[in-house]
Amino acid sequence: MHCLQTRALVHRYGNDLVLDGIDLQVPTGSIYGxxxxxxxxxxxxxxxxxxxxxxxxxxxAIFGHRLDxxxxxxxxxxxxxxxxxxxxxxxxxxxxxxxxxxxxxxxRGRIDEVLAxxxxxxxGRKRAGQFSLGMKQRLGLAVALLHAPDLLILDEPSxxxxxxxxxxxxxxxxxxxxxxxxxxxxxxxxLPEVEKLATHVGILxxxxxxxxxxxxxxxxxxxxxxxxxxxxxxxxxxxxxxxxHGHPAHRDVDGLSLPALDDADAAALNRTxxxxxxxxxELAPERGDLERIFMDIxxxxxxxxxxxxxxx
Length: 312
Ligand SMILES: Nc1ncnc2c1ncn2[C@@H]1O[C@H](COP(=O)(O)OP(=O)(O)OP(=O)(O)O)[C@@H](O)[C@H]1O
What we know:
The protein has helices at 42-49, 71-75, 93-104, 109-117, 133-145, 163-180, 191-197, 215-224, 235-244, 263-275, 290-299, and strands at 2-13, 16-22, 25-27, 31-35, 57-62, 65-66, 78-81, 151-155, 183-188, 200-205, 208-214, 227-232, 250-252, 255-259, 280-285, 306-307. By secondary structure, the chain is an alpha/beta fold. Strand 13 (250-252) and strand 14 (255-259) form a beta hairpin. Helix 3 (93-104) crosses helix 4 (109-117) and helix 4 crosses helix 5 (133-145). The strands form three sheets. Strands 7-8-9-4-10-11-16 form a seven-stranded mixed beta sheet, sandwiched between helices. Strands 1, 2, 3, 5 and 6 form a five-stranded antiparallel beta sheet that branches. 35% of the residues are buried. It folds into three domains: 1-77 and 149-226 and 288-312, 3-Layer(aba) Sandwich (Rossmann fold); 85-145; 227-287, no CATH class. It binds adenosine-5'-triphosphate. Adenosine-5'-triphosphate binds at residues 13, 18, 36, 38-44, 189. Adenosine-5'-triphosphate (ATP) binds next to helix 1. Keywords: ATP-binding, Nucleotide-binding, Transport. It comes from Lysobacter brunescens. InterPro entries: AAA+_ATPase, ABC_transporter-like_ATP-bd, ABC_transporter-like_CS, P-loop_NTPase. Residues 4-231 form the ABC transporter domain. Belongs to the ABC transporter superfamily.
């Protein structure tokens, strides 16, 4: 079951095509990392999902209903944080929330609950203007949580945080997901962060969804394409020798990369190199980290959009 789905979502700013047929599928209960470099179109997508931008082409369905059908009703079940949250700087966290609690007409007791959830219960009379960036982000999250949403839509919540703040934000989001069952759609350009945080990932590049599926499916994709990493005492000589033996190797900053071989062929190749007087420091499968997969997907201009595995 998908908590949020889009079909063929297209958006233009003037003549600039910024989203080119996006089919998002965010499974209920997931943490969906919406990943892409700056300018890929993430914020535009999230603004469309929240009805902050007028939909031009394509469909958006949330909790199984078209957004246009019941925008207000659906938004009541969504908490969001798009760009840096703004507050009354001269008011405390509690006072800021008390104002919004009246607007949202949620129970007063909810203020203490969300302050505790985001770890701001002890900030007392301290003004929001004196908060660290991490505390401001957490207060933004408290605002998003005030009306007890089923879905959180967050635009780069780790932006500008120090490493400690990033770890805290991740732990908090995972707790909200695990303990309260909140589905979270979170955009990021930080690949290692998405790898640690998310259960599912969508990779956006130049307005196209290049990959969508589970983190495991993404890594499985890499496994299929896995290459061998070779580092030697003389990479130039090794490259020439390999070419003569029908193993074209690609040179990069880490040494040589060549198409995957089975164990027997890899052992034979090792013997050939050593017999030619070339020291072999490393002969192993490429790292399967997301960074490399991401570069693979994004650099491969011919790659069609792929959906791997069942996103649900
Ligand atoms: N209001 C606007 N008018 C014109 N062009 C815009 C507008 N907003 C965004 N763009 C352009 O649309 C493209 C996508 O921007 P968007 O902010 O959606 O990307 P993003 O992936 O969120 O990037 P970032 O992480 O840098 O915010 C960019 O080229 C941007 O310059």
